[in-house]
User: What shape does this take?
Amino acid sequence: DTEVTQTPKHLVMGMTNKKSLKCEQHMGHRAMYWYKQKAKKPPELMFVYSYEKLSINESVPSRFSPECPNSSLLNLHLHALQPEDSALYLCASSQVGGSGSYEQYFGPGTRLTVT
Amino acid sequence: KNQVEQSPQSLIILEGKNCTLQCNYTVSPFSNLRWYKQDTGRGPVSLTIMTFSENTKSNGRYTATLDADTKQSSLHITASQLSDSASYICVVSAGSNYQLIWGAGTKLIIKP
Assistant: This one.
């Protein structure tokens, strides 16, 4: 199984709402990623979890709060977002360890619209 | 500065024709180079991943080449199909999984 699943597919939320994006993989990968992608732009890395610990935060505003409850699940909690946060949010996973740079498997994404 | 540049920005070809997409990079240190296919509104799907020592790698009708001396890569698509319409993104890994330098992509449109 080389699939990364993401829910929901689409999300519309107001600026005062709290919502969560979910990501799941069963490939035994111990690195998981959140990316943000605006239209016609490449994905931008937001967070990296390695062995369920946050290893990279690319200076993301605190209104985005990641969580890795176990090695298969990754959440992104959203609170007090701005309209400019509207984007496609992608989750990815990969192997980790050694000096390798491993292939990342992406989920289908969550299309987020902030009104 | 680490950079990945792709050309052309967009390309329209007829179904059944072949095409070649280009990628030039200035990334150091170099770990590997990846080509992804991304349909609009969907996550990228990996086509190939090549290390420094690999010159050519194929995945069905997709063939990627890498010239590490000139820091150039190409993706050749043979006998294009309507389903090949997508953005093709070249990504270079600068030493680790976390240091991925993304190109802007080539938008390919296949017309019947």
Q: What stands out?
A: Chain B touches chain A at residues 31-32, 34, 41-46, 49, 89, 91, 93, 95-98, 100, 102-105 (CB under 8 Å).
